[in-house]
Amino acid sequence: MVSKTPAKKNNKAGAAGTVVDTLNARLADLIDLHWQIKQAHWNVTGMDFIAVHRLFDEQAAMAREMADTLAERARGLEGVAEGTIRLAVERSTIDEFPHGLIDAKKAIAELVDRYEQISGQFKTASDEAADADDKGTEDAYIELIRLIDKQTYFLRSHLK
Ligand SMILES: [Fe+2]
């Protein structure tokens, strides 16, 4: 996992500010993930092409929804959502997806790796929200962990 500068402090102080900063850090990861899945959707090759191409598109839509959930949670806490592509490039902590055409099995393995990185980040973020006594944010992360872990299982099932 790449270590990056965390999201800058925005307009919230104390524990709530930390929670908003982390929401924006994880938003950056999800924006990056969304376009990585699209990269896979466009460049995947092999006998399983059409099934995997479609599955990746569904998963890209899921990543986009997840990003929306975290951005709107930041606003719900009276913080600012920081979701431009340029901020995502600066802040994302997940590894870059391989460039060029990619075999279906390799693309799936690469995405499983990214989903596990994201799930791990959500677990840390949910613990931080729990420490801040922010049940709503903690619950949002837990829901996203369930969603991404399910998609990891969908992908991993292709590799057995
Ligand atoms: Fe498409």
Produce a short descriptive summary.
By secondary structure, this protein is mainly alpha-helical.
Describe the structure.
With 160 residues, this protein is an all-alpha fold. The protein has a single domain, classed as Up-down Bundle (Ferritin). Helices cover 72% and strands 2% of the residues. It has 5 helices and 2 strands; from the N terminus they run αβααβαα. It has helices spanning 14-43, 49-76, 85-91, 104-131, 135-156; strands at 44-45, 102-103. A two-stranded parallel sheet has the order 1-2. The longest helix has 30 residues, at 14-43. The radius of gyration is 16 Å and the shape is elongated. The relative contact order is 0.19. The model has no long low-confidence stretch (mean pLDDT 94). Fe (ii) ion (FE2) is lined by residues 41, 57.
Structure characteristics:
160 residues, 5 helices, mainly alpha, Ferritin, binds fe (ii) ion, 72% helix
Please outline the helices and strands.
Blueprint: H1 14-43, E1 44-45, H2 49-76, H3 85-91, E2 102-103, H4 104-131, H5 135-156
Parallel strand pairs: 1-2
Helix pairs in contact: 1-2, 1-3, 1-4, 2-5, 4-5
The chain binds fe (ii) ion.
Fe (ii) ion binds at residues 41, 57.
- DSSP helical segment count: 5
Rg from C-alpha positions? 16 Å
Distance between the termini: 25 Å
CATH superfamily: Ferritin, core subunit, four-helix bundle
